[in-house]
Every structure is written in structure tokens, then in C-alpha cells.
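> forwarded from #structure-qc
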């Protein structure tokens, strides 16, 4: 167990945890606006709360003092890490879940293990796995990623069939062993992969002996904008990855969930790739703290955002531009000669906006759980006051 004294000895220097914010714009906003605790402010951009190192240290100190404290792990096994894994396995409807230090490693090891050797994997051309991992799957596991649907969030089962037909006609056998689907798709501003096509593709994959992986980094955000649970979305897939830092506010970390037969010994591969952290409890403790009760808190945040959109849209200075098939991101157009001044007025009331869009038309906003800290009418009133002042 990590008690308060041992925790402070281990990591009183907040730099040990690094910044938990995921976007460079958050640092720019922090430097230019009056600051309040991340536990108090209403942050109208990004997926998570944007905890500072100081916020993280204070939270860990509090968690270490409460109840039985924080149970330490050993090389990312046991303790609060195991508690976190069990909680996510249950929420995702999977037999087993394994902590990973990064989403890049979670996606890689999922595809690598499902493939079972050199082969091909179908991915979206707009996916994180294809664009943002430095060809890790190709370089380290000899699995070639085949991108479909450039410029779109969704590829179709017909496109999968056509690719398999073309592969089968080649002079050298190059089988497709895995289909990986990301939803929501960040490069498409949080657009959801079409659920009808997803059902068709996963059914087709099962019929043809092809394994499936869901890059569900933000899947618990997606559930706030539909009728299905995270377990419903994950059910047709062999494995699913969920981010721990994007909106469960850990300094880093990811969860990979799937069948026990596949994941029980996954810690060996995790360590082989340099991911067997000696102490992962700071990440797991924070993520578990925010995971508990998240669906209820996020449902309130979405409700507040929906009411707020209706209220501010009644004012001539504001208009809302939704993202088709989107989730938590949208555009707010603001008629004001100085958007930085408008933003700073709100910042003085602990309402934080991102940097204005380059074209000066407004802001790209994101719904995170901090929206639930205020009423829609109070938030709308602040916007009207700021634009009319």
C-alpha cells in the first residue's frame, strides 16, 4: 500500500508525472488566461480535464490518505493496476484487461497478437494506427497495414471484399489476418464509424476467419451520444483499446481488453517492448478515480451542453456548427471583433476556451465532464455577458 508519507517521498516533485494535457493548444491557453484549479474550472475544449502536475500530485496524495490507500503494483502487475484492469474488463464485457503504458503499444500488441505472424491488417486511412505510430506495426511485427477510405471515417464491407479479392488474385499469398477499426475517429473530428457498416464488417470477418480490433480510445465518450454502451460497441470485436489519459485524466496509460486466452500472458510481450513499467500505480490510481461514476457525470455534461447550445443559439452573436455523425466536438461561431478579449472575459469566470480558429470565426469546442460543473443557463449567461461587454 502507498500511504501519504511514502507517496510524498516517491513523487513530491510534480515533474515526475509529466503534463497530462494532450494538445499543444492547452499549454497556450494556460499561459494566457487566469488560472483556476482543474477541479474548479469549466474547460470547454478537449476530451479531459487537463490536470496539471500539481493537480495530479494533490489528487494522488488525497487518494493515498483515503480508506485503504493506494495498493502498489510490481512491474505493472497487481495492486491498483489489477483493480483498474478488472473494472475495465467488466465495463467492456471482456474476460480480461491489461494495462499498457501507451495507446500506441496497446494497438500494436493487439494487432500483433491477433495476426499471429507476418500478414496484412486493414485499417482506416485516417486512423491513428496508420498515421501516428511511425510504422511501428510494419517495422517491429512485419504486419503490413492496408489503408481504406482516405478522407472518410468509415470504410464499407464491399471495400473489404474487394480488397480480399484483389489479395487472393496475387501471385504470392498475402493474407489479411486482422481488421482494425477506430471509432470515434480523431482525424475526422470525432466522427463515428458507421454502425451498420461496422456490424457488417465484423460479421464478415468472423465468417472468413479474420480477427478484429477496436481502437476505442474515446469509446466511453462515444457512448454519451448514442444508445449503446461501451460493452455493446466492443462486443463484436476480439480486442478493444481504451485511453486512460485522454479523459480519465491519468498522466499516461491505456487498457487493452479481450479474451483471457489472448491476454493472460500479454505482460510478457508488454515487457519485451519496454512497456513493463516498474511502478504504474500513479497512472492507474488516477484513471480508476475518474473512471468510477464517469458515465453519470458525462451524461450530465452532455445534457448541459445540449441545453447550452439551444440557449446561446438564440443570440445573434452565436451559431453552432455540428460535425456530421460527430461526438463531443463541434464548432462555435462567434461574431466579435476581438475573440481573445472575449475568451479572457470568460476565463475570469473560470470558463476556459481554446485558442480562436485561425480564420477568426470562432472556436472548436469539446464536451468533457467539466461541463457538468455548471448549469446551462449560467453558462449561456456568461457567454452573452462576455460578447456584449
Amino acid at each position: 500500500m502507498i500511504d501519504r508519507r511514502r507517496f510524498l517521498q516517491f513523487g513530491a516533485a510534480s515533474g515526475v508525472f509529466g503534463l497530462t494535457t494532450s494538445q499543444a493548444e492547452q499549454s497556450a491557453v494556460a499561459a494566457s488566461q487566469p488560472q483556476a484549479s482543474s477541479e474548479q474550472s469549466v474547460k470547454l475544449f478537449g476530451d479531459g480535464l487537463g490536470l496539471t502536475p500539481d493537480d495530479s500530485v494533490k489528487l494522488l496524495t488525497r487518494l493515498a490518505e483515503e480508506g485503504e490507500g493506494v495498493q502498489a503494483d510490481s512491474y505493472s502487475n497487481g495492486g491498483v493496476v489489477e483493480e483498474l484492469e478488472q473494472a475495465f474488463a467488466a465495463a467492456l464485457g471482456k474476460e480480461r484487461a491489461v494495462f499498457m503504458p501507451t495507446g500506441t503499444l496497446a494497438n500494436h500488441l493487439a494487432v500483433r497478437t491477433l495476426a499471429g505472424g507476418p500478414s496484412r491488417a486493414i485499417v482506416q486511412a485516417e486512423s491513428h494506427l496508420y498515421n501516428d505510430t511511425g510504422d511501428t506495426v510494419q517495422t517491429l511485427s512485419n504486419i503490413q497495414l492496408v489503408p481504406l477510405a482516405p478522407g472518410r471515417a468509415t470504410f464499407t464491407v464491399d471495400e473489404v471484399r474487394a480488397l480480399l479479392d484483389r489479395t487472393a488474385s496475387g501471385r504470392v499469398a498475402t493474407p489479411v489476418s486482422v481488421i482494425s477499426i477506430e471509432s470515434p475517429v480523431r482525424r475526422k473530428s470525432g466522427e463515428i464509424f458507421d454502425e451498420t457498416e461496422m456490424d457488417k464488417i465484423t460479421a464478415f470477418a468472423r465468417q472468413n476467419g479474420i480477427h478484429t480490433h477496436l481502437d476505442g480510445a474515446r469509446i466511453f465518450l462515444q457512448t454519451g451520444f448514442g444508445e449503446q454502451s461501451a460493452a455493446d460497441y466492443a462486443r463484436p470485436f476480439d480486442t478493444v483499446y481504451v485511453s486512460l489519459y485522454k479523459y480519465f485524466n491519468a498522466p499516461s496509460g491505456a487498457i487493452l481488453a479481450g479474451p483471457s486466452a489472448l491476454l493472460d500472458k500479454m505482460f510478457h510481450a508488454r515487457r519485451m517492448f519496454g512497456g513493463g513499467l516498474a511502478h504504474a500505480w500513479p497512472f492507474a490510481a488516477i484513471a480508476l478515480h475518474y473512471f468510477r461514476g464517469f458515465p453519470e457525470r458525462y451524461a450530465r455534461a452532455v445534457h448541459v451542453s445540449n441545453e447550452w447550445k439551444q440557449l446561446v443559439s438564440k443570440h445573434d452573436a452565436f451559431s453552432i456548427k455540428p460535425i456530421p455523425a460527430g461526438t463531443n466536438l463541434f464548432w462555435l461561431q462567434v461574431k466579435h471583433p476581438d475573440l481573445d478579449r472575449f475568451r479572457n472575459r470568460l476565463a475570469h469566470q473560470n470558463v476556459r476556451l481554446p485558442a480562436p480558429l485561425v480564420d477568426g470565426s470562432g472556436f472548436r469546442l469539446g464536451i468533457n465532464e467539466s461541463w457538468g460543473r455548471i448549469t446551462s443557463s449560467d453558462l449561456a449567461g456568461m457567454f452573452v455577458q462576455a460578447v456584449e461587454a
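QC bot note: Residues 3-35 have pLDDT under 50 and may be disordered. The CA atoms of residues 185 and 191 lie 5 Å apart.
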